[in-house]
Design brief:
By secondary structure, the protein is α+β, with helices and mostly antiparallel strands. Helix content is about 40%, strand content about 20%. The protein is built from twelve helices and 14 strands.
């Protein structure tokens, strides 16, 4: 089993030219899904159904050699994946295997796929994996308390404690007012107590200012484009203002929560929905930006596929499972499709984007009118 699905692996798989068809299996094995807590989890049914559908199609239309090769692989994959449990399943399971056995890779992910999918294609079917890796892009998580700050990196559903930066207030120079040993009327007055509180507040201000400088350095050094600021007691605005401008601009969301004392795994679970929402918001905002096919943008399969053929695309936004209208495509667009029909048009677009170094963002046509009106494909152009 390979350690993890990443952009490099997807680029290699998406541009591969295997000699035999490739079975691609994506299973949402997330144990947090109620459907996966039953004795017969949903992902096993989805695997069985997907493999059976391919077998039925091959029996109707496939050549003898392909049918025989798939029959053998069908049983092997069912036995192999059906026997996995616990950590081996992760929250998603991805399998690529060619009918001749030359390609044989398996990945486990800590993020859930949008849905399970099983495909047999001329090459690895990569678009669900591209979406999984894109949603799991590294993000900074800054936890702020009155006397403690932690900086963590969330990536692909996981927080690595080894990368944890922790700062704590230095109390060594604090000198609490003791008062005199006289009678009650000689003890510290309200003014003294207020003075002490003011000194402590000033000390915390210095700490937060110094922590903000260290956090900014960590944010910029890590290159995070998304940073989540989680602070207690209304500290988030105050801490965000203390950050230098470049780091402050990376703060995408500020939350009033206390997660400081939680273990890394629990923090990852708590911040994941917020990071998912940020990713979705970014995708929808990109769709609106590209709406209307203005200068520097392409809208609809004819324009987008032609731009991909010319390596003009900087960022591709699409629904790879949408079936677009392919009746009026220019010749350049057919170069990208390579004979594929509507069922595989989105996948071929993703492969072309990976081959040219373009970014890929995936969102459903049902989620945004801008993408639906563009028949499932939009692009920002390089030139």
């Amino acid at each position: 089993m390979h350690p993890g699905l990443d952009h490099g692996a997807l680029e290699r798989l998406g541009t591969a030219a295997p000699a035999a068809p490739v079975l691609s299996v994506y299973l949402r094995t997330d144990p947090r899904d109620p459907e996966n807590t039953r004795a017969a989890p949903a992902w096993r049914s989805e695997l069985t159904t997907g493999l059976n559908e391919i077998a039925d199609e091959l029996e109707r239309e496939g050549d003898r050699e392909t049918r025989l090769a798939f029959r053998s692989l069908h049983e092997r994959v069912l036995d192999e994946l059906g026997s996995l449990d616990g950590p081996a399943l992760g929250r998603s399971l991805v399998r690529f295997v060619s009918l001749d056995g030359a390609l044989d890779e398996r990945y486990t992910a800590r993020l859930p796929l949008r849905a399970s999918l099983v495909r047999l294609d001329a090459r690895p079917f990569v678009s669900p994996g591209v979406d999984l890796v894109d949603r799991g892009a590294p993000a900074g998580v800054v936890l702020v308390g009155h006397d403690r700050v932690r900086v963590l990196e969330w990536a692909h559903g996981w927080i690595d404690e080894a990368a944890d930066l922790e700062l704590e207030i230095d109390r060594s120079d604090w000198r609490r007012y003791k008062g005199s040993a006289g009678s009650a009327r000689q003890r510290p007055t309200v003014a003294h107590t207020e003075h002490l509180a003011a000194r402590e507040e000033a000390h915390r201000d210095r700490f937060l200012g110094e922590a903000a400088a260290a956090v900014a350095q960590r944010i910029e050094g890590a290159g995070w484009q998304r940073v989540l600021l989680v602070a207690v007691g209304g500290l988030a605005p105050r801490f965000q203002l203390a950050l230098p401008a470049p780091a402050r601009e990376r703060i995408r969301l500020a939350l009033d929560l206390n997660l400081l004392g939680l273990p890394a795994a629990e923090i990852a679970t708590r911040v994941e929905p917020h990071l998912n929402a940020l990713h979705r918001g970014d995708a929808l905002a990109l769709a609106e930006e590209l709406r209307g096919s203005g200068p520097g943008a392409a809208s609809g399969p004819p324009a987008v596929l032609a731009a991909l053929a010319n390596r003009q695309v900087a960022e591709l936004l699409l629904d790879p499972l949408h079936r677009p209208d392919l009746t009026a495509l220019p010749d350049l667009a057919h170069e990208v499709l390579g004979g594929a029909g509507a069922d595989y048009a989105g996948e071929r677009a993703v492969e072309a984007a990976l081959a040219s170094g373009a970014g890929v963002t995936i969102v459903g046509v049902e989620d945004t009118d801008a993408l639906a009106l563009a028949d499932g494909m939009l692009a920002r152009l390089r030139w």
